[in-house]
C-alpha cells in the first residue's frame, strides 16, 4: 500500500457505532473500513459522473439521429414517388 497518513475525523456516536458493528462483522479495523468506504464512494461517484456524461451524449446524438432519419425518410419518399411515377408511365 502507498504511504499512509493519519487523519482525525469526527463522527456522530450513532454513525461510529454502525461503523464499529460493520467493521466487526467484516473482521477489519476502523481504518480499513473507512479506507474501503472511501474507495467505494469515489468509485461510485466516478460511475455516476460517467453515466451522466453518457446520458448527455445520447441526448445530443438523439437530435442528430432524428435529423438524419428525417433526411433519409425524405430521400426514400422521393425515390418512391419517382418509382411510382415511372410505373404510371408504363401503364
Please describe the topology of this protein.
Blueprint: H1 13-26, H2 30-90
Main sheet overview: none
Tell me, what's the shape? rod-shaped
Number of domains: 1
Strand content: under 5%
Total DSSP E strands: 0
Radius of gyration: 30 Å
Mean pLDDT: 93
Q: Low-confidence stretches at least 5 residues in length (pLDDT < 50)?
A: none
Number of helical elements: 2
Summing up helix and strand content along with how strands pair, one would put the structural category as mainly alpha
Task: Give me a quick take on this structure.
With 91 residues, this protein is mostly helical. Helices cover 82% and strands 0% of the residues. It has helices at residues 13-26, 30-90.
Explained architecture:
Helix content is 82%, strand content 0%. The chain has helices at 13-26, 30-90. The chain has one domain. The termini are far apart. It has 91 residues and is mostly helical.
Which descriptors would you attach to this protein?
91 residues, mainly alpha, 2 helices
